[in-house]
Structure formats: C-alpha cells, structure tokens
Amino acid sequence: MPIPKYTPPARRAYDIVIVGGAVVGSSTAYWLSQKLGDGASVLVVERDSTYEFSSTALSTSAIRQQYSNPINVRISQFGIQFINGFAERMAPFYPNEPAPDLGFREHGYLYCVSPEGVAAARERVELQRSLGAHTVFLEPGPLKDRFPWLNVEDLGGGAWGAREEGWFDSMGLLNGLRRAARASGIEYIDNAVVGMDMKGNRVTAVRLSTGEVVDCGIVVNAAGPRAQQVAGMAGLSIPVAPFKRYSFVFASETPIPGRMPNVIDLSGTFVRPEGELFLTGNTPLDDGPADYDDFSARHEEFEDRIWPALWHRIPAFDALRVRQSWTGHYEYNMLDHNGIVGFHPEVSNFMFANGFSGHGLQQSPAVGRGVAELIVDGGFQTLDLTPFRYERIPANEPFMEEAVI
Predict the structure, then answer these.
(1) Can you give the pTM of this predicted structure?
(2) Where would I find the FAD dependent oxidoreductase domain in this sequence (predicted)?
(3) Are 256 and 322 in a shared domain?
C-alpha cells in the first residue's frame, strides 16, 4: 500500500490550535464549528489519525449518571441527550448515507454496595434522583429477586440505574464529530506538536514534528494521556499521567438470563454483556503512571484477580474462556480523578481539557461545548464547569468524586 502523501497545514497561522483530535478534541472542534461557522480558523493536530492507541478507541464506551457530584451527573445527562439525538444532529453531514447510530445499549449500571457503604450509597442515590436520574437503591432481598444470578450474601444492597445508563459506539461518536467538524471548515492534520513558542504570558506558536511553525491565538490541550507532555511545552504542569487499564472479553459456558446491567463489584471489577460474550476489567494492583507508549498486556490480571471476583459475585461464571483482550490508557488526574477545564490564569491563551480519569468519552459532549463557550463567549453558557477549573491544581484543593471505577 502506498504511503499517503503528507499534507502540511493550509495556513501559517490559526486562531485556535487544538492539540489532540480524539473525542475531547473533536468534540471541542465540533462545537467551535457550530458557534463560529467560518468566522475563525481552527486547526486540530492529531499525532495518529488511525486512533489505534487512543483512549477513545480503547475505551469500554459506557455512560452513567451514578456520580457523587451534581455537575458530573448533569454532564452525563447531557451526554445521554447527545447520544440519543446523535443521528439527527449528524444528518446534515451525511447527505448521501444514513447518519451514524451509536447503538446505545440502555442496560444500566449496578453498583454493589457493602454493608458499611449503605448510608453513603443511599445519599448518592438521593442526590442523583433529585437531579432527575432514575437510580434506585435495592436491599439484598429485592436485589436478589431482580438479579437472581447475583451473590448478595456479603452485600448491603445495590444502586441500580435502570434508565439512561449503558454503553455505546465510541468510534461512531468520534468519527461523526470529526466528519461534522471537517465539513464545517475545521482543518485536521496528522502530525504531532513537539514544542511551543512563548512571548510573555502567551503561546505564540506551536512547533510540529515535521518542522513547521504555526502561529496561534489560542491553544487547547486535548492530548488525553499526553496532557502533561503538552502542558510542559508551555512551562506548565498538571498531575495527569497515563494509567493502564486491562480489558478482557470472555465466553461463559453458563448464560446469564434477562437484561444484565454493567455490574460493578466491591472489588472494583466490572462485567457487562457484549452479545453472547462478556466484557470485564478492573483497577490493577500495580496501578500507577505508565510510559506513554506502553500498551503491554498483563494476562495474569484476569486469572489472578478478575475471574475470582467474577466467580464470587456471579457463581454462574465458573467456566470462562478469554476470547480477546486489550490495554488502554486512562488520562488519570492524580489529584482528584476529575477533569481540568479552563484557561490557565497566567498563560492566558492556554486552555486545558484534560484529566478525565476514564470519564472522558462520556463527558466529551458537554466538555467540548463548555470549552467552546469559554473561547467564544468568555464564560460557560450552559453547564457551569467552574468546579473543574485549573486553579484548584496549584492550590491543592481537590474536587473529589467518590464514584470512580
């Protein structure tokens, strides 16, 4: 196959340069295109346009409303609206073919709750319901009645989101956003930002791996797990690093009857159906920052930790066979597991959209819209994402989220 000819940037200067073209960067590009039309020049620089190792492509592609912070609940509620209306929203950009259906599987989430965690879980459910979520708390008896295949002997109950939670097509979302952005005048190039030129308290240009220097008015850091690498080019620092997550698809000799939700075990292991197969993963014991290019697998994670947890929680999982596995990266915010969204207070044209700690895919519609509002309108116009502001990082004031997987 011939190597595609490299296409350099069409301009020497852009009003906005977005570093990273996966789902957060492309959502930002899409919302900017809708707000600006052709009134500004926008360049998206993506280091790998195949997205083979992007967090978007390697995500487990789920969305939930079961969070402990109201803003995270509302972000997901908008995400659900966006997913459900995606085909209609994208239709103008697919004039000769059907717009993408993201295949949303509304199976819900089921959080297993320990006896000691019941009071806190009930508080979270009450908060979520006050915001319009459909979460319910089930005590062990009703939980067993609803999901007879579940071992509830060591549980105090379960928090179940029966509606507006589930999983969907991550690449369908990304490809639709990219297509809409490009059709609206946003330029994408397959390249890498390797440096930045500064003048005073502003970034004046980005330097590309192919040698070009591109002047810019605003830089948006949407580099996912490489967020700190990009921030460092402007002399900045954020506590964001790639953390490895191992995913396994397996077959079970015993089927699970009924509509199985995404089950989150006390151990942190999750499992959900994928057709006749099942998808599972966990937080590994050796959790910590990884090399940017380290996607090596750890197959013993399944044998040593995941399978015992699955078998304990769902006894029907006594005979399993792994069919497929992969390793992805969380862009993990080591301060508080929440995103960092907003301009830097001193490097005034450097925008953060980073650190979503495994929630970036589901939060991308709202985050991209919020970033576009900050750039175009000077402030948030829809959801107030101020709790995610950068200023909490140097102040060491975490905005904690209890419901982290």
Answers:
(1) 0.96
(2) 15-374
(3) yes
| Nearest CA among 229, 258, 248, 228 for reference residue 240 | 228
Which residues partner with 343 through β-bridges?
A: 351
Is the CB of residue 219 less than 8 Å from the CB of residue 69? no
Residue 175 domain-assigned (yes or no): yes
How many structural domains is the chain composed of? 3
User: In percent, how much of the chain has pLDDT > 70?
Assistant: 99
Burial class for 394, CB neighbours closer than 10 Å (0-12, 13-18, 19+) = exposed
On whether residue 75 sits in a domain, the answer given is no
Residue 183's domain comprises: 13-59+171-239+335-392
Task: Evaluate whether residue 222 is within a structural domain.
Answer: yes
Report the C-alpha gap between 206 and 213 in whole angstroms.
6
pLDDT band at 288 (very low <50, low <70, confident <90, very high): confident
What lies within 8 Å, CB to CB, of 375 at 6+ separation is 16, 32, 218, 220, 351
Q: What number of CA atoms fall less than 13 Å from residue 246's CA on the CB side?
A: 22
Measure the CA–CA gap between 326 and 302, rounded to whole angstroms.
12
pLDDT in tens, 325-369: 999 999 999 999 999 999 999 999 999 999 999 999 999 999 999
323 and 266 fall within a common domain: yes
288 inside domain: yes
Buried/exposed 249-264: b ≥16 CB within 10 Å, e otherwise = bbebeeebeeebbbbb
- The CATH number of residue 31's host domain is 3.50.50.60
The answer for residues whose C-beta is within 8 angstroms of residue 323's C-beta and 6 or more apart is 249, 250, 251, 277
* pLDDT tens per residue, range 92-139: 999 999 988 999 999 999 999 999 999 999 999 999 999 999 999 999
If asked whether residues 214 and 231 sit together in one domain, one would say yes
